[in-house]
Amino acid sequence: MSSAVSAGVEEHGLELQAADLLAMIDAGRPVLVLDVRNEEEHASWRIEGVRPFQSVHVPYFEFLENPEGALAQIPSDTRPIAVVCAKGGSSSFVAEVLRDAGRDARNVAGGMVSYGDHLEARRVSLGEARAGHLEIWQVNRRGKGCLSYLIRSAGEAMVIDPSRRTEFYQSLAASLRARITAVVDTHVHADHLSGGPALAKASGAMYMTPSGDAEPPGSVLGNGASLRVGESVAQVLATPGHTPESICLLMEGKYLLSGDTLFARGIGRPDLGSDVRAWARLLYRTLRSALSRLPDETLILPAHYSATSEIRPDGTVSGVLGELRRSAPELQIADEEKFIAAMERAARPAPPSYPKIASANRLRESVAEDLASEWEIGRNECAASRAGP
Amino acid sequence: MNAKKLDVRGLKCPMPIVKAKQEIEHMASGDQLEVTATDPGSVPDFQGWVKVNKKVSLRSQREETDDSGRKIYIHLLERLP
Lengths: 389, 81
Fold this sequence. Notes:
heterodimer; A: alpha/beta; Oxidized Rhodanese, domain 1; Metallo-beta-lactamase, Chain A; 2 domains; six-stranded mixed β-sheet; globular; B: 81 residues; alpha+beta; four-stranded mixed β-sheet; 2 helices; 4 strands; 27% helix
């Protein structure tokens, strides 16, 4: 990746890949981001890096109507300017206007769609040499805050909650010399289209979900089931609440792939169905029974995060169950009815595309590319409480 | 009054606005232009554009489904003096 970054900078190419822009921001290299989308799109979803960076927002139609006025809104210095729009069309036009004015401007290829699709993999530190044969790789879809996993043991790999960029997981497995034998979705996702069925098919693996209508019947993950990958074993914990079928996978009794049930700093929202009270009740019982038996030192490896600040210095996102038990406000409520009432108060509308995404995932339908990227716009909104400022 | 029609289905930004701008330049005050687009981003884009272009106003916007089942966004613009 580092060679791609330097090529993008040194050759003064007209285009910059979203991955390279993120690498520049994360490394603290000078760059000015110019977002040329309309107000509404800009307000709802923006590029984020692990370090602060300067960005300006000037809609592209201002460059059409009044180029001098638009140019005057951009700080004048020698930093390269990364111009971004929804899909890369308008930003390409604006980058050209800027270059004509003598600025070092590059178009972010594919715009926010590419930013939202970008994946990067990092190995989770399991904290002890004893883990030996087991490797957990976290795949971060940074534009959306979605996390998926590749678990490797003795030449086999299990992929959990993959996005629809399935070739990424195949390449990762190949680079680790592992054969993908199982693909799991922890629940019916509403925020992103699952790559599970397609990845399983492409790699000759079994696709497994906790939903009752899964085919073949042996692929339905029930409570207490064991999943073997290489020399490691994952235990299935039924954890209904975020959705009724939600599960967590406990690897080797220590590493909890917690889906959308527990996050690094909170819990999954129970209000994405039609009956928030019913799902909140399920969630309360899950938190007080199945998950209450796990030790404090259990490592939480969630399927989402809400804020870039949750990314640790090593680039991964994780939590420790004992800390979550102490800090998450939802876990302080020790009364079922009070918990349900709190969840009901916190209920908020879901993005309008969520029911469509959930339905496509439930029915394992493939969705046309342009529709898929339209539905998947924006960061995930799967946590029970919104990210703080 | 009949509005002149502009079909920008299948075109992505900035083209719907670029083409609408070209048409509006050649229209007389009070003339209307009906733009049919498939890009959902065209809805907030037209709203933003008319704020910076003082020669045009946005009379209405509506969503329909065309014969091939695609969602279409119809923007009615009017040329100002």
